[in-house]
Design brief:
single chain, alpha+beta, 5 helices, 9 strands
Length: 167
């Protein structure tokens, strides 16, 4: 089977918690991943929306994905709250010279390591059958904790990639 991420940071949040996944355009060094996780934890401790604290959590997974989650059972995180989180992520991009907003990169597992390629290269790998229906891909479009736990890492055949790449 494939490696499993550690979701302990989400333990206190309900399955309905809203999730945002920011995928890095490169592998973060161990030092960067630790620093970004620490900064993200500090951000979530002080995160507010309309002057109300947001019950939230964040971490870096696989040295590639920044995951931020918020409990919206008490109130929905508003536009200004979301804007502040995006501003935080953009500041990380600048500080660490990394792009967390490049949606053209497809990530998948290759021999238990996260691999990343652009769309054209992904199509080429499909055509050469180096990627197939059983390849585990990352669905960064999941929006809840439950979906993150169950639908983030899925075989290609079960992902949105299947429709996009007409395989």
């Amino acid at each position: 089977m494939h490696m499993a991420p550690h979701f302990d940071f989400l333990q206190h949040l309900p399955d309905s918690a809203r999730v945002w996944i920011y995928q890095s355009d490169r592998v973060l060094t161990e030092t960067e991943a630790v620093s970004i996780t620490k900064e993200a934890a500090e951000f979530t401790q002080s995160w507010s929306s309309h002057a109300r604290p947001v019950d939230s959590a964040a971490t870096v997974l696989f040295s590639r994905f920044l995951v931020i989650a918020a409990n919206e059972q008490q109130f929905t995180v508003s536009g200004c709250g979301i804007d502040s989180s995006v501003h935080f992520v953009k500041a990380l991009c600048s500080k660490y010279q990394v792009d967390f907003f490049n949606r053209q990169i497809i990530t998948y597992l290759q021999e238990d390591k996260v691999a990343a390629v652009d769309r054209a290269a992904f199509e080429h790998l499909l055509a050469k059958e180096q990627i197939d229906d059983d390849t585990i891909v990352f669905n960064n479009m999941v929006t809840t904790k439950a979906a993150l736990l169950n639908q983030w890492m899925v075989p290609l055949r079960e992902s949105w990639h299947k429709q996009v790449f007409s395989i």
